Automatic annotation (TrEMBL), chain A:
<dbReference type="InterPro" id="IPR035906">
    <property type="entry name" value="MetI-like_sf"/>
</dbReference>
<feature type="transmembrane region" description="Helical">
    <location>
        <begin position="71"/>
        <end position="95"/>
    </location>
</feature>
<keyword id="KW-0472">Membrane</keyword>
<feature type="transmembrane region" description="Helical">
    <location>
        <begin position="244"/>
        <end position="263"/>
    </location>
</feature>
<keyword id="KW-0762">Sugar transport</keyword>
<feature type="transmembrane region" description="Helical">
    <location>
        <begin position="141"/>
        <end position="163"/>
    </location>
</feature>
<feature type="transmembrane region" description="Helical">
    <location>
        <begin position="184"/>
        <end position="206"/>
    </location>
</feature>
<dbReference type="InterPro" id="IPR000515">
    <property type="entry name" value="MetI-like"/>
</dbReference>
<keyword id="KW-0813">Transport</keyword>
<feature type="transmembrane region" description="Helical">
    <location>
        <begin position="7"/>
        <end position="28"/>
    </location>
</feature>
<keyword id="KW-0812">Transmembrane</keyword>
<feature type="domain" description="ABC transmembrane type-1">
    <location>
        <begin position="72"/>
        <end position="263"/>
    </location>
</feature>
<comment type="similarity">
    <text>Belongs to the binding-protein-dependent transport system permease family. MalFG subfamily.</text>
</comment>
<keyword id="KW-1003">Cell membrane</keyword>
<keyword id="KW-1133">Transmembrane helix</keyword>
<dbReference type="InterPro" id="IPR050901">
    <property type="entry name" value="BP-dep_ABC_trans_perm"/>
</dbReference>
<feature type="transmembrane region" description="Helical">
    <location>
        <begin position="107"/>
        <end position="129"/>
    </location>
</feature>
Length: 277, 469, 312
């Protein structure tokens, strides 16, 4: 036991270094003047602190080309709605697949998996056409619908897995006590699978946070853009605005990291000792 | 975990089959519903919805808007026009350059492209042809026989067959060779002495220097792209191949008839050009190895690690933005003429004008045209000059005011009129997408993979011919 | 699997189950209805349309009075291309390497982050970074770091004397695929790690206690408690890693565009180019259907082998 602790720390340091070093490079790059980025010999740290990227992101009047705060707001709204939609729908679906024994439930499971198998470049034109039919182009709601349906199949399977790992004897016990299916699901089983709910929520949130192809194709108005589309626009045909690009990316990534830091304590076992046997 | 005997298994499969069938029915009806809806004429989602009845909204779609100088120019144009015509509101739709074209493809197929779409001449026929009967308006009634036909650079390129489908009302740029005056001076090279491709090569080799004496080269002659970027092909054929062969796809300036037996890619002149460029690009003094894309090449030029760079008038503004001090050291010379088989060939680079089309789906084509025509006026062209490209109205560019403010840009105009052969562009044919892919892959084979030029180009020719079957 | 560790209690007798099923079925349909409706309304049309397109004429730049049916012509054209098979090979290699690496790395990370140690919360938050960085940006920063002349990776390797000349990682046909795989692994391992971590957290602690009482060492605990209990989650994670990687596009495309000399042209890039660069959406759709078929076959075999589709 004594020997294992240092090993754990060593592992933790190694894995952290692996995960963050490109990000550290992003942070450093975001603070460099353009001439430092392409200097030889390479300078690892900024020769002079350059904050132009961050100013442009934070001050809406610094550059007409940038409306970072608006994009940020759009992205938060879209991602939150997507998360709520997909968690509710897939928790219900996953529970249904895990606990009920009706015809075709696994067939549904397989069919929704198929939706995960086509490349975006092929889906995009028909999907665009159907969005047009529903009058959902250039709207955040349309984006939420698209993201949710793309995230739901994964979330459903994932949550089915978690529900499977909770014994159905718990459901039965609850129902013997007089709880209906709905109450059993909502107030007994859901809390028991909290880690599963948290990770699927993280998954759907991050999927919409970073999604590019749909957002870029469906949204035309510059003011409606999401962060990934806005940030990609800093990469022009002729130049890359590295300071904007990296500052924007750091500011897109950091809130996620902080939020996750705060939320990760909910990744603990939903099963208190003795609840399941 | 699972307790299944054969019977239960069978049962399970039956259930599954029933379920799948039910789902297919749902799917089928959904599909039917949608394809019915497909038949309806598509109404532009964002055009023309007006409350006051008088006000008109036009959407202007462009790949240039992501670039700061273009955005400034376009915003200025729109706000000025709105001032002159308070009832017309113009909104710009765009995406970053890399993704703009796929988005446009999707929109044209779905019928939701903007009222006005700004593209390059080689895109006109492709995007027009994406839907039956064409996606854009024939502009002949507005242009043919008018002075617009003569006064705009690149107007003659904006055609499908004999009809105009776009107006070259914005700006253009061809290419020349930018050089660092100080590095030329240090190497004792007179830029005016570089007339031919061989002169250019000798200068490039001479400019490859180990400046700090550590045994490794740290300054190179010419920053060219060696990687998977499409420029690896285009710099080759714009600088060397097209001038001598008349065309990388078809001879006589990429002209028709576009038939398989006229494929020109493996002509003797093109093979010679490929060999020449392969030698050149793999000479470590002449060109720096590992230059992934144009962006890196430009940085090397600004850092003084590369003495020459092939670029257009926009590069002037970019250099100024990078560091105003660089402007004093920035020289410009025309692309070199090429001596081949005892003959001298004039350079003929792209002219690259940005041209505008009007969508057939537009509810206000007349209003859209009025705006486009206004863009050719002197007051509009003056704003466009801020984009860094050269405004397309020849009369405006000839004014003293423009010449005085843009001494380097005027040189490009001079090259176009006096030194360069008539501009050539990619063939406006449906197979062009395939041909471009083939030439990019082949160029990577030859210039990055160092494969034999003749064999690779023969292979490319065979593939191109197949595209016409 | 040992009876002591299975989470399932003894199944109720058959008639009781049948009774419950009858009563419950309606509720079950109700629970799954939103899922079926939303997926059907949004995704079935695009998928059905893509399937249809693969049998139709869709070379849009040469319009032919609508989109007549052409039978299997699109598929024939696809199979006639040498590059299709090459691309298939590259895709398989890409999938095998990146999925294996992401899964193993993810599992190790999850096991580590499941242990109690000081600063665990911070490490968990740091590990999520690759997942949180937008994909386009990931690619651009790696392009910068991989650069021949201005890249930090070359600089470090040179300083450590591991190479004597810089390497054009993305521009050299020997290194490009590996360099792209590395980015995929970096970007993708946190997903596996976090999902598996949540799975580990769902394992009741008393199972470990029971195993300890039985005298099981760490390795035995891992094999007889952790792995079996992680299975339901693990199976889904692995399956989706494979399925998603089959249709993966963005990372490789932005990094290399499929080049140089097509050595990184995975199937999705091959298909994309046929569609958006040469405008033959019919052949592209046929390629998509092949991808779909590969995914379906893999999924069926995999689910059959793991019996994951029939749990409980």
């Amino acid at each position: 036991m004594k020997l294992r602790q240092p090993l754990i720390y060593l592992g933790a340091v190694l894995i952290s270094l692996f995960a963050i070093s490109p990000f550290v490079w992003m942070v450093l790059t975001s603070m460099k003047p353009q001439s430092d980025i392409y200097s030889s010999p390479l300078s690892y740290f900024p020769t002079s602190l350059h904050t132009g990227g961050y100013t442009a992101m934070l001050n809406p009047h610094a550059d007409d080309n940038v409306n970072f705060m608006k994009w940020f707001y759009n992205t938060v709204i879209v991602s939150l709605l997507t998360t709520v939609f997909s968690i509710v729908i897939s928790a219900l679906g996953g529970y249904s697949m895990s606990r009920f024994r009706y015809r075709g439930r696994m067939a549904i499971g397989y069919l929704i998996l198929i939706t995960q198998m086509l490349p975006g470049s092929l889906l995009i034109i028909p999907l665009y056409i159907i969005m047009k039919q529903y009058n959902l182009l250039n709207s955040h709601f349309g984006l939420v619908i698209a993201y949710s349906t793309v995230a739901i199949p994964f979330c459903t399977w994932m949550l089915k897995g978690y529900f499977d790992s909770v014994s159905s004897s718990i459901d039965e016990a609850a129902m013997v006590d007089g709880a209906g299916r709905w109450r059993t699901f909502a107030s007994i089983i859901m809390p028991l699978t909290l880690p599963g709910l948290v990770v699927t929520a993280i998954f759907s949130f991050l999927t919409s946070w970073n999604e590019f192809l749909f957002a870029q194709t469906f949204l035309s108005d510059y003011g409606k853009w999401t962060l990934s589309v806005g940030i990609a626009s800093f990469q022009g045909q002729y130049v890359v605005n590295w300071d904007y690009l990296m500052a924007g990316s750091v500011m897109t990534t950091l809130p996620i990291v902080i939020a996750f830091w705060a939320l990760q304590k909910y990744l603990v076992s939903g099963m208190t000792a003795g609840a399941v046997k | 975990m699972i307790h299944t005997d054969n019977k239960a298994n069978n049962y399970l499969w039956k259930k599954r089959a029933a379920g799948s069938a039910a789902l297919l029915v749902i799917a089928g009806s959904a599909l039917a519903g949608c394809s019915n809806a497909d038949q309806k004429p598509a109404a532009s989602a964002d055009a023309g919805s007006s409350k006051s009845g008088e006000a008109i909204t036009l959407t202007f779609e462009t790949s240039l808007y992501a670039e700061a100088p273009h955005k400034k120019a376009i915003d200025a144009l729109i706000s000025k026009y709105n001032q002159l015509n308070p009832n017309v509101k113009i909104t710009v739709h765009g995406a970053d350059y890399e993704n703009f074209w796929d988005k446009l493809t999707t929109e044209v197929i779905a019928g939701t492209q903007g009222d006005i779409v700004q593209v390059y001449p080689e895109n006109i026929s492709t995007y027009n042809s994406l839907v039956d009967g064409g996606a854009f308006v024939n502009l002949d009634p507005y242009i043919k026989g008018k002075d617009l036909e003569k006064k705009l650079v690149g107007q003659e390129l904006s055609k499908i067959g004999d009809s105009y489908y776009a107006i070259s009302n914005y700006a253009w740029g061809n290419t020349g060779i930018f050089y660092r005056k100080s590095l030329f001076k240090k190497a004792g090279i007179d830029p005016d002495s570089i007339k031919t491709l061989e002169d250019f090569k000798n200068a490039a080799v001479k400019l490859g220097v180990d400046t700090d004496g550590d045994g490794k080269l740290d300054q190179y002659g010419f920053a060219s792209v060696v990687g998977s970027h499409p420029f690896v092909a285009s710099e080759w054929y714009r600088l060397v191949a097209r001038p001598v062969s008349g065309g990388i796809f078809f001879p006589d300036g990429e002209s028709g008839p576009y038939k398989a037996d006229r494929i020109n890619v493996n002509s003797e002149a093109n093979v010679w050009a490929a060999k020449w460029w392969q030698d050149f690009i793999n000479n470590p003094r002449a060109t720096p190895p590992g230059t992934r894309d144009k962006k890196v090449g430009r940085e090397m030029f600004w850092n003084g690690q590369a003495a020459m760079n092939m670029d257009g008038p926009w590069f002037i503004g970019m250099t100024k933005e990078r560091d105003p001090k660089l402007m004093d050291d920035l020289g410009l010379m025309p692309q070199p003429a090429i001596e081949y088989n005892g003959k001298t060939y004039k350079p003929n680079p792209h002219t690259n004008p940005s041209v505008a089309m009007i969508s057939k789906k537009s509810k206000h084509p007349e209003e859209a045209w009025k705006f486009l025509e206004w863009m050719t006026s002197e007051e509009a062209q003056q704003m466009i000059a801020g984009s860094g490209m050269i405004p397309s109205n020849k009369n405006y560019v000839a004014t003293d005011a423009y010449k005085k403010d843009n001494p380097l840009a005027v040189k490009f105009m001079d090259y176009l009129n006096n030194l360069y052969a008539p501009a050539v562009m990619d063939p406006p044919i449906p197979e062009q997408g395939t041909l471009s892919q083939i030439i990019i892959n082949t160029a990577q084979d030859i210039f990055v993979g160092k494969k034999d030029p003749k064999a690779s180009l023969d292979e490319a020719a065979a593939k191109m011919k197949e595209a016409f079957k | 699997m040992k009876p002591g560790v299975t989470p399932l209690i003894e199944q109720p007798s058959l008639w009781k189950r049948e009774m419950k099923r009858l009563k419950d079925n309606r509720v079950g349909y109700l629970f799954i209805a939103p899922l079926v409706i939303s997926v059907a309304l949004v995704l079935l049309y695009p998928i059905g349309k893509a399937a249809l397109m693969s049998f139709q004429y869709w070379l849009v730049t040469k319009p032919k009075n609508g989109h007549p049916f052409v039978g299997l012509d699109n598929y024939r054209e696809l199979f006639a291309s040498d590059y299709f098979y090459r691309s298939l090979g590259i895709t398989f290699l890409y999938i095998i390497v990146t999925v294996a690496a992401r899964y193993v790395l993810g599992l190790l990370t999850a096991l580590l982050l499941n242990k109690n140690f000081k600063g665990r919360g911070l490490v968990r938050a740091l590990v999520i970074i690759p997942w949180a960085v937008p994909e386009v940006v990931t690619c651009l920063v790696f392009i910068l770091m991989y650069d021949y002349r201005y890249g930090v990776i070359n600089d470090l390797l040179l300083k450590m004397k591991m190479i004597s000349n810089p390497v054009a990682f993305l521009g050299d046909s020997h290194t490009a695929l590996g360099a792209a795989m590395f980015v995929n692994i970096w970007k993708g391992f946190p997903f596996a790690a976090i999902m598996l971590l949540a799975g580990l957290q769902s394992i009741p602690k008393d199972l470990y206690e029971a195993a300890t009482v039985d005298g099981a060492g760490i390795w035995r605990q891992f094999r007889s408690v952790t792995l079996p209990m992680l299975r339901p989650v693990s199976v889904v994670v692995f399956l989706l890693l494979v399925v998603w990687t089959i249709k993966d596009f963005g990372i490789v495309y932005v990094l290399t565009g499929g080049g140089p000399s097509r050595v990184t042209e995975i199937l999705t890039i091959f298909i994309y180019k046929i569609g958006f660069k040469t405008f033959n959406f019919g052949v592209a759709a046929a390629g998509g259907m092949i991808l779909l078929l590969i995914s379906i076959v893999f999924t069926l075999i995999y689910l059959k082998a793991t019996k994951a589709g029939e749990t409980t």
